[in-house]
Design a protein that fits this description.
The protein is an alpha/beta fold and about 250 residues long. It is built from 7 helices and 8 strands. Helix content is about 35%, strand content about 25%. α5 links the parallel β4 and β5. The longest helix is centred in the first third of the chain and has 22 residues.
């Protein structure tokens, strides 16, 4: 495949946020609150898929990880600390510049690329992630196909995205942008995918969904795994020839 999926307007919008991407109180504050919960889910899936002890500090040692739509590296850096050889790809050159600077300051070696995923040098990865990205691309089916093309045999793909419900329209788009919880223009509700729609795209790319869970607000923690999928959800997939899918209720 050689799909072009970047929306230039979306790339410009997120590139304009690059300067304070790592500020937990800045324009990316919502991502900072989401990140620990997403990481907890990813770690759970890593441990189950590769039979890793939950106490292991480097569960990705010897593995290659790819984060697509990586921003300034909020997931790439933890993956590197878990032992992975990490590659991050983002549509906005400004984000990649910020990611490289921050990784250098942390003493982390991460390969970053700006542009289309299809333009990345040929390689496959044991772990492929893309968080809150599929709703921003021009062609979701082509984008999922590109992600699948980068997934190594026996690998794991993990995605997250907002659900297209009236509740997400009210809270994630209208309320969140009105009060400044996320920058205006971040979300286009019509581009949100329902879980069955994303699952269909994943299956169309030759993968099977093996886990799905909600990512919901929590008055105590900010966000929590499980429960309602009405606002946001995470989905894990692997190559379909590995067995029968079993989706978490």
């Amino acid at each position: 495949m050689n799909a072009a999926t970047i929306n230039p307007d979306e790339a410009a919008h997120f590139g304009a946020l690059a300067a304070d991407w790592w500020d937990p109180h800045g324009s990316s504050a919502m991502l900072h609150r989401l990140n620990p919960v997403r990481l907890a889910y990813i770690r759970e899936q890593i441990d189950m898929h590769w039979h890793v002890d939950a106490r292991e500090r480097h569960p990705l040692q010897g593995k290659r990880a790819l984060d697509v739509g990586c921003g300034a590296g909020l997931l790439c850096e933890p993956f590197a600390r878990m032992g992975a050889a990490v590659t991050g790809v983002d549509a906005a050159p400004e984000n990649i510049a910020a990611a490289r600077d921050h990784a250098a300051g942390q003493g982390l070696s991460i390969s970053y690329f700006a542009g289309e995923l299809a333009a990345l040098p040929p390689a496959t990865f044991d772990l492929v992630t893309s968080m809150e990205v599929v709703e921003h691309v021009t062609d979701p089916a082509a984008f999922i196909g590109e992600l699948a093309a980068r997934l190594a045999p026996g690998g794991l793909m993990i995605l997250s995205t907002p659900n297209r419900t009236m509740l997400s329209k009210l809270l994630l788009v209208e309320a969140a942008e009105r009060v400044g919880a996320v920058p205006r223009g971040t979300h286009d509700w019509d581009r949100f995918l329902k879980p069955e729609e994303l699952a269909s795209l994943i299956e169309g790319a030759g993968l099977e969904v093996i886990d799905r869970t909600g990512l919901a607000p929590s008055p105590v923690r900010g966000f929590k795994l499980g429960g309602s999928e009405a606002l946001n959800y995470l989905m894990t997939a692997r190559w379909a020839d590995r067995g029968v899918a079993s989706v978490r209720p």
